Amino acid sequence: MSDIIREEAVKTECESPYVIEMIGITKEFPGIIANDNITLQLRRGEIHALLGENGAGKSTLMSVLFGLYQPEKGEIRKNGEVVTIKDPNDANALGIGMVHQHFKLVDVFTVLDNIILGVEPNTAGFLRKKQARERVIELSKTYGLNVDPDALVENITVGMQQRTEILKMLYRDNEILIFDEPTAVLTPQEIDELMAVMRGLAKEGKSILFITHKLNEIMAVADRCSVLRKGKYIGTVNIADTTKEELSNMMVGRDVKFVVDKGEPTPGEVVLEIDKMSVRGSHGKKNAVNDVSLKVREGEIVCIAGIDGNGQTEFVHALTGLVRVDSGSIKLLGEDVTAKSIRYRNTHGMSHIPEDRHKHGLVLDYTLEENMVLQRYFEPKFQKGGFIRFDAVREYAEGLIENFDVRSGQGPVTLSRSMSGGNQQKAIVAREMDREHKLLIAVQPTRGLDVGAIEYIHDQIVSSRDKGTAVLLVSLELDEVMSLSDRILVMYEGEIVGELDPKTTTVQELGLYMSGAKRWGREVQKNEG
Q: How many Å apart are CA 250 and CA 459, to the nearest integer?
């Protein structure tokens, strides 16, 4: 392994080489020490990655720097001088901005209103929104983060919400930029654009702290990387002197497989059959899903690939009963379930790992154990005479927590809201994969997970396939699409435009289909529908 740089804070009589120093930071929550005497030092103009497993304390440490939490011990220095950061206003005053993993947006406000919220330009008390709008448009063009400033946040894609968060920070001219899992919801093309944006910001002299689980991104864009494990500081390495394998070993304490280990599929009977399904778009002008037909058989993994915003969300919502189908039919195990309720589908063989874990996956103010039985509390195993058997719920939740390594401060009684995003995701995956099902709909199942957890979830999905489950995977991660799928269906503008074999296709060909440049094995002429 490359040498680990264990940097210690030193008192400097001259100007500090570090723009930010977090020295001996300790932050505790009930039942857990999230940060245990951590020291982190950020140089001017560098991109410094912060790596660690889900629940390692990365987001907590950055929340301390941004003033969302107050540490029990330790101090923060800017340019060598000790500073006090009591809240995000103090952080912004010091030039520190943060793009949060879970967006801090007002759904009923426009993109523009969210970006300028709290720093609205005004003259004599009158809002100068035109000036703000022009600046936002200029920033979005400069950094390749094009958004519609007049769109309501509740009507835009998750990827667009992420762009809005980044523009909020850029609008405030922050010099220290914290990116907390900024690529978790972006497409590969958007990730490449963001990497270019980050490099440009660093060249301008801005200093970036970059939290990610994606080792490829760290290797591509970071100058140095600090690793946390279970709340403790493991070390800092220069990216030029290390490898993905060494970083993953530092992060999880063992070697990790980067290739999905799976045999040939043995497809059986048709489990899911969709026939000419169409779903109206949110604005009613155009179908979000248009005349889609497909079949998924037991014992195979079929992936819907595509650039975010091409109808995948509406497709899955219709399939799972969250929105109404406008035309066409859905058959599950030969039964027409087009008009059936969500519970009916859940109790008749369908499991669903949703795209948005907060909106459709968890009740955030419920405990972890309550969330584990959201779709099963009415079963005889968990209730008797209309009363919940809490001992059975507790025992069941504890089993899932152990089997899927869901980390939380207080075990099954932990409030879901207080858990890290990755552990929230693992809880949903555990619940959905443990339920009896013949069809698993997995939408971005490894979003926000570390490499160790991704390895485990992929193994579980393959194991589920091998036991006869039909798996419909919807993913924006090209590596995941290529390595996990048995068949790839590409969705573009709400239509299936191609079917590819992952063993014979290339990422480049897949990209052509995703962008609409190819369709069912032929080149698409300019202006062709």
A: 22
Structure letter (DSSP) for residue 109: S
Q: What pLDDT was estimated at residue 125?
A: 76
Helix 451-466 × helix 244-252 angle, to 10°: 90
Which two structure tokens, joined as six digits, stand for 284? 């009613």
Query: What is the value of pTM for the model shown?
Result: 0.71
Q: How many whole angstroms separate alpha carbon 216 and alpha carbon 84?
A: 35
State how far the Cα of 453 lies from the Cα of 53, in Å rounded to an integer: 8
**CA distance linking residue 66 with residue 95, whole number of Å:** 10
Give per-residue burial for 243-264: e unless 16+ CB within 10 Å, then b.
eeebbbebbbeeebeeebebee
pLDDT of res. 186: 67
DSSP annotation of 261 reads -
266 torsion bin: left (phi>0), alpha (psi -120 to 50), beta (else): beta
pLDDT computed for residue 142 by the predictor: 80
Give me the domains of the chain, ranges plus CATH numbers: 1-94+174-256 (3.40.50.300), 96-167 (no CATH), 257-349+437-529 (3.40.50.300), 360-435 (no CATH)
How far is residue 380's CA from residue 424's CA, in Å, rounded to a whole number? 26
> Residue 518 — pLDDT band, cuts 50, 70, 90?
confident
* Confidence at residue 28, expressed as pLDDT on a 0 to 100 scale: 92
Strands 18-29, 32-43: pairing kind: antiparallel
Write out 330-365 in H/E/C secondary structure: EEECCEECCCCCHHHHHHCCEEEECCCHHHHHCCCC
User: pLDDT tens for residues 140-187?
Assistant: 888 777 889 999 998 887 778 878 888 888 888 889 999 988 876 666
Q: What is the DSSP letter of 149?
A: T
Angle between helices 390-403 and 421-434 (to 10 degrees): 110
Whose tokens are 């035109």? That residue is: 130
d(CA 349, CA 77): 55
Taking the C-alpha atoms of residue 455 and residue 446, their distance in angstroms, rounded to an integer, is 9
What is the pLDDT averaged over residues 368-375?
A: 95
Please name the residues in contact with 91: beta carbons below 8 A apart, sequence gap of 6 or more: 65, 66, 67, 85, 97, 98
